[in-house]
Amino acid sequence: MKKTAIALALSACLVGSIANAADRPTIxxxxxAFADASSWNGVIKILESDGYPVVAAANPLRSVQGDAQxxxxxxxxxxxxxxxxxxxxxxxxxxAAANGHENVKSLVYVAAFAPEVGETALALxxxxxxxxxxxxxxxxxxxSDGGKDLYIQQDKFPDQFAADVAKKDAQLMAATQRPxxxxxxxxxxxxxxxxxxxxxxxxxxxxxxxxPQALGFMxxxxxxxxxxxxxxxxxxxxxxxxxxxxxxxxxAATAGE
Length: 257
Hints:
Blueprint lengths: L1 H22 L2 E5 L10 H9 L4 E4 L6 H14 L4 E6 L2 H8 L6 E7 L10 H5 L15 E2 L5 E3 L6 H5 L5 H10 L3 E2 H4 L13 E6 L7 H10 L5 E4 L6 H4 L1 H13 L3
Parallel strand pairs: 1-2, 1-3, 3-4, 4-8, 8-9
Antiparallel strand pairs: 5-6, 6-7
Helix pairs in contact: 2-11, 3-4
């Protein structure tokens, strides 16, 4: 009888766990420029261990509208509530991709741009002093279509992009960085979803790509539900402080429950 009771109890716990996981929104993560989907690895481990389904999109980094359409197609394919999360340039992408999707319940901006109509990544990063990205860029790579791809110089990458990440890990990130087109950084944003969808913000106070003052300005303008400023964190706050980022994403996921 005891074994039967224990088995029934374990079965009930398992069914309850599966039901809770099924009720949780899917977290869609969108990386930014000079990074790839692996930049979310630490955050993904935490979210999945807490029972959240996760999709880390491979952001093309070709154009704001084109990238947004790609992410929008991923959102369209998910038949569940979604929390859409963007890092850096990925903020412009999620701001456009969420439009027209009623299943996107929250937006989370991780050291990310939250543009107003007509604003560009370049203009926002220069709106306040503090960005040192420009001098660290490598000579542009000419593309066959006439465009240009931008990279950060590998020897300058760790200090510029990931100063609070272990040096060996930052060097790997430098070698595997994904380029963004010059045109994407100069492309004006359309109507942003943060005007109609609740938004949360997290960033580091030692960000050298997007000045913390600019990130705070965008968070306030978007009427952020909660803004977390991580002391000493670099631009890749999700790599160096995955716990804080995951916790904010989970708050966005459970808001209104």
